[in-house]
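for ur thesis appendix - NUDIX hydrolase. copy paste whatever u need, i formatted it the way the template wanted (i think)
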Amino acid sequence: MSDKAIQEHPFYERTLDSEQIFQGRVISLQVDTVSLPNGESATREIVRHPGAVAVLALVDNKMLVVEQFRKPLEKLQVEIPAGKLDQGEEPVAAAARELEEETGYRAKSLQHLSSFSTSPGFADEIIHLYFTNDVTKGDIHLDDDEFLTCEAITLDQAISYIDEGRICDSKTLLAVYAWRIYTLTGSF
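the 3d part is after this line
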């Protein structure tokens, strides 16, 4: 749908005012006042995010995952390798970079599977999900504030991790279910 068509849609919310409340290293927060379709106005709190990438990487029919502490959830979390886009960075380049930084594996090729919004009710973050089963082992290069372990798990282990709540983020759930389809059909 074109920008013009969106702005002409009866549910479109026109921005009347916008105030930036916070500017951080990763996100910013703004509060917008919008005009509703019924003529009333409302407030929308919006998190701005530069976008991210994630990689479903298979090595010997096992998925590479990392386990790390996630402060917002106050728990350890098992996830596929992922990270935010740097300014001006192409998603496929970021996916290759993040895979190597977090797992030590270099992708010889990456296939784009999907791009999806994480929380469209309050955030503009888009995650670009890639797949590879064509990797070579290299060296891990973690950021100074990044502490994680990497392992390769089977599909059955991944399903168990979901059941146990060790995997509960959308990008990893999507990757596991895509992997299941790939295992059953040979394609995505």
